Each structure stands twice: as structure tokens, then as C-alpha cells.
Amino acid sequence: MTFPDALSRRDAIVLAALSAAATAIGPRLAHADAAAVEAEIKKLYADKKLGSGRVKIDVPQIAENGLVVPINVEVESPMTEQDFVKAVHVYADGNPLPGVVSFAFTPACGKAAASSRMRLAQTQNIIAVAEMSDGSLFTSKVEVKVTIGGCGG
Please, are residues 105 and 85 in contact by the beta-carbon 8 Å criterion? Predict the structure, then answer.
């Protein structure tokens, strides 16, 4: 078997496309971890102290299918002009990207509660961080066991 001295134009284009795809997809195959979640929270809030309580995460303890996992987040707050929840950020420490969803609130919302669905790659922790109007932060963490793979296996 002999090899040509130079690649054909078609071969060069195919190799370039494969290389670009590998570069784009490769980093997404890695999974986040607790440190990645902490880094994401630090990007938003620097070294502000995270308090506990006030945040309730309602997810199934065991998700039979990681492709569609329901999540409900609720934060105790009077939702007045002086005291309200500005935002809630939800993270998963085992997904390819740690950020799952963010919700924004105003006093006009009346209640700081939101629902969504998420895809979970494996058994992992779900972390919610609530930002209050006075700048204080509250967090909660729940473990979800995934029995059938979601976005990664």
C-alpha cells in the first residue's frame, strides 16, 4: 500500500471538519464537579457569604429517567419593594455545564417560585442560590439519584 505525498483537497477538508468537531465537542464531554459549581457562583457573587434556609428545592430523590427531571424552586420572601428575591440560579455538579437554569423575579411576581425540567447526566447534587434585594444570598442543595442516563450516560 502506498500513500500519496500530499492530501487531496477533499481529504484536507474532511480532516479539518473532524478536527473542528472534536475541538467543539470534546470539552462538553467532561462533567462539572463541586469546584466548577463553586467557580460559577464565585463569578456572580465573588466571596459573598451563602446563608442556608429560605430556599426550597423540590426534585424527585430518584429520577428514573435523567432526560426529563422536574424541578420546583421556591424562596421564602415577602416580595415587597423593600424585601424581595431578585434571582435564583440552579446548578448541577455532574452535568457537562454546571449552570442549569436562572430565574429572575420582581416584587410584582408576588411569590418567588418557579418550575422547569432539566436533564441530568448522572446521580448528582442540585444546588440553588437565591439572591435577595439587599444583596444577601441563600442556598440549598439536594442529591438526585439518576437510574437511567440523561445527557451523558
Answer: yes
CA atoms within 13 A on the CB side of 52: 2
Instruction: Return the beta strands (E) in 30-147 as ranges.
Output: 50-52, 55-58, 62-63, 69-75, 85-92, 99-104, 112-118, 124-132, 137-146
**Contact at 8 Å (CB) between 57 and 112?**
no
Rounded CA separation 49/109 (Å): 26
CATH for the stretch 31-146: 2.60.40.2470
pTM (2 d.p.)? 0.76
How does strand 62-63 pair with strand 137-146?
parallel
Q: Name residue 129's beta-bridge partners.
A: 89, 139
Helices and strands (H and E) in the chain: how many: 2, 9
- Buried b or exposed e, range 72-85, using 16+ CB within 10 angstroms: ebbbebebeeeebb
Q: What is the pLDDT of residues 65-93, one digit of tens each?
A: 888 999 999 999 999 999 999 999 999 99
CB 75 within 8 A of CB 56: yes
